[in-house]
Amino acid sequence: MDNNVFRKTRSGADPDFFAAEAAGLSWLAEAGAPVVDVIAVWDCGIELQRLHSDLPDADAAREFGAALARMHDAGAESFGAPPAGYHGRQFIGERPLSSRTHASWGAFYAAERVEPYLESARRAGYLTADDEELTRSACAVIADGVFDDDEPPSRLHGDLWSGNVMWTPDGVVMIDPAAHGGHRETDLAMLVLFGCPHLDAIVSAYDQTRPLAAGWRDRIPLHQLHPLAVHAAGHGPSYGSALGRAAQATLALTR
């Protein structure tokens, strides 16, 4: 057994499941992002560079923040675009992730990143009728373009919670992307949602490399609607309640 290789396998996996992961990692790597190296991929598995853990470090956090800004600036063809050259299905965790593209961010975000998970969350009993109504109302406002700006599509990791941010002796390395074209604030909002060591250092270095738009912290609930909707579909009612609160905070931004 090669100690430098980490192998993931899944019997009966969708034939695109590991291909999507490999394509996302390669696409982010093309932008100079610190991601795990792909060694091999096949229908039911993937081999990756084995990572060795280290304690979180403020210097590594600052390097990561700057690299994340540059990765986002590498851009994407459109909102919702999958990794360039990849034409298969995509996933976030084990759930499907739409690859339908839109010219505007709001239309994309509402239709492809929030609404697709609401019915599953309701069926599972994890989203109340009131919280679903709030979320759909927020989606209608978002789709109308209230939050659209002049930002071009960014190259997102797409599932940037702390578990996918690995601290190694060589610095931060990202794993398990759901890579697509979106808004840069969505990756940052996911880091905030699930917490990340030295988050202030990451954000500070990001902002120094590529200044964030005024009011971005106020828009964090807006950009957390996607990960909360995904989690509400399968991880319990606490996420459904959090989704409703984020939708309410999003609607409050328009008043």
From TrEMBL:
InterPro entries: Fructo-/Ketosamine-3-kinase, Kinase-like_dom_sf. The keyword Cell cycle does not apply. It holds the Pfam family Fructosamin_kin. GO terms for molecular function: kinase activity. Keywords: Kinase, Transferase. Belongs to the fructosamine kinase family. This is Fructosamine kinase. It comes from Gordonia oryzae.
